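[Q] Does anyone have a clean structure-token version of this?
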Amino acid sequence: MTRKKVVIVGGGYVGFEVAKELDAHADVTLIEQREAFVQPPATIRALLDSALLDQIVLPYDRLLKTGRVVRGRAVSVSQTEVTLDDGNVYPADFIVVATGSSYAAPFKPSGDSIDDFRRASADVSAQLAAAKSVAIVGAGAVGTELAGEIAAARPDKDIILISSEDTLFPMYPAKFGNQIKRKLERAGVSVVLGQRVEDLQRMDMPYAGSVKLTGGRVVSADLVFPVVGSKPNTTLIQTLPGVNAVPSGRVKTDKWMRPSNFPNVFIAGDIADIGDGMTIVAITRQNPWLVTTLKQVLKGQAVEDQKPYAPWKKAPILVPLGPKVGNSWLFATVGNWITRKMKGKELFIPKYRKAFGLKR
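[A] Here you go.
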């Protein structure tokens, strides 16, 4: 019996996992522009331990047993096929678009070349090693973890973390953010809250220079990291009929993660505005739902007969500040030991190496 075709665009946290889970149930094609998966947030620690980079760049060649991974850039999606920039067309019964988001270097690859990403990471690592002072603009998870990692590995550096918010992680209970602030300060990090930076010189990569805060203070640093959030990669999906983008750049979906008038096209992850944040934790809920739903529709059931997706009411979050210290919110605030065991010590590296068929 001929298996139905599922084409997945994007080999990030959503794409590779959904492809792997459906590999035994459908004729799966995973389309990805890079030759390897790069595992954030371990890219942060790799700036301080360059040997780690080889552990978190994971080739796709062992991911699937029966399906295929095609290296290419998708330029259009219809109800029946995905077209690449080289003209090749991949027919599909069902399509999942999970093109993720872009982030300032060196936390994610900015282009198609993994070698370019390696060079960018090495360049910033060298700049960081030479810097005596570091300013981090943006105190979300990436900025906060970066401050903690630098403080843990290079306690001699002068580190300042700047946030426009009045508290760290204001979407969570005050205890969570307050404890992180105290731990950063104990590690020697200066935390500046409620101050917006008015004059970032660039947004795409770190640089040496100064920043002016709204209160008038000027902060000079040997290395300024602009860490002000992700930009959803929605160019491809916005070509579909009926797509509704929101101010954040993400795309609205119906209750079954469908963004358009096409009933067999789904989206997930950072591009999907479905009530979840742009976090790895979000996809730990989205991926199982998507896999379960697709398995049923591959058997001939209607999408509308499946249970609608229910986003996190408040997603857990894990914020290590180096390998030993950190805080997490797991429906209550927990501290160093649990954060270290769940994320801080190994950053999920063994888990993802195993998923890609690689040794630890």
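[Q] Thanks! Anything notable?
[A] DSSP finds nine helices and 22 strands in the chain.
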